[in-house]
C-alpha cells in the first residue's frame, strides 16, 4: 500500500552500505535530517496465518496442501484489521490509495506449502470472497508480474535493489509494505528486529537506495 504524505527524520542512522543495502539505526544520538527524496517505509509482517496455528489443528506444516499460500487465521484477520492492512479495513479507501502487488517480495525459503504462491486470479477470488470488494478493480496485480507466475524459480536469498528502486520511483512519500518474516529479516539484517505479526517497523529509504531502520 502506498499513501501520499510528508516524510520525517531518522534517528542515529549509520552510513549506508551501498545500493540496495540496509543499515540499522543507532540506539542513541541526535536525529539527522534526511536528504531530499527520502521516503518513509513501514515494513509490516502479515497477520497470523493458518500455518502458525497448524500444530494446534493437527496439520503437517511441511506437507499439507491446504497450507499453500496460507490464509490468515481468525486472530490474523483481527490483527490485520486492527493494523489497517486488511481489505476490509481499507474498503473506504478504494480508488484513493493505490494498492499494488510486488511479486519480488514473496517469502524467502524452502518449497514448503506456505511458501508456494497461488495464481493471481485465485488470490483475487479469495480477497473478494473475504472482503466483499472488487479486488481486481483496485488492487494492481499486473504491474511487475513475472512471466509464468506462479511457476517461477525461487531464490533462498536475494538482493533488494530493484525493489528499492521501485519504491523510490513512486510519487508517494510514505509507503506501507506488507510482507513476510524472512523478507523483513533479509532487508533489515537478522537480529535487528524479530518481526511480529502486524507490527510496523519504520524505515527511511534514501535516494541512494539504502534502507535504514528507524524504529
Structure in words:
- The protein has a 6-stranded mixed β-sheet. It has a two-stranded antiparallel sheet with strand order 2-4. A two-stranded parallel sheet has the order 6-7.
- The protein contains 5 helices and 10 strands; from the N terminus they run βββββαβααβαβαββ.
- It is α/β, with parallel strands linked by helices.
- The longest helix has 12 residues, at about 120-130.
- It starts with a strand and ends with a strand.
- It has one domain: Rossmann fold (3-Layer(aba) Sandwich).
What attributes does this structure have?
Rossmann fold; 215 residues; His_PPase_superfam; two-stranded antiparallel sheet; disordered N terminus; six-stranded mixed β-sheet; alpha/beta; Histidine phosphatase family protein
Residue-averaged pLDDT: 77
Instruction: Determine and state the CATH class.
Output: Alpha Beta
Secondary-structure element series: EEEEEHEHHEHEHEE
Helix fraction? Answer: 10-25%
Largest sheet: 6 strands, mixed
Beta-strand level of the residues, as a percent range?
15-25%
Spatial sequence of strands, sheet with the most strands: 1-8-5-9-10-3
Q: End-to-end distance, in Å?
A: 20 Å
Which word captures the global form? Answer: globular
> At the third CATH level, what is the topology name?
Rossmann fold
Regarding quaternary structure, how should these chains be classified?
Answer: single chain
Our count of domains comes out at 1
| C-alpha Rg (nearest Å) | 17 Å
Uncertain residue segments: 1-18
Quickly count the helices. 5
Helix-strand makeup class: alpha/beta
- Any idea what the CATH architecture is? 3-Layer(aba) Sandwich
Total strand segments: 10
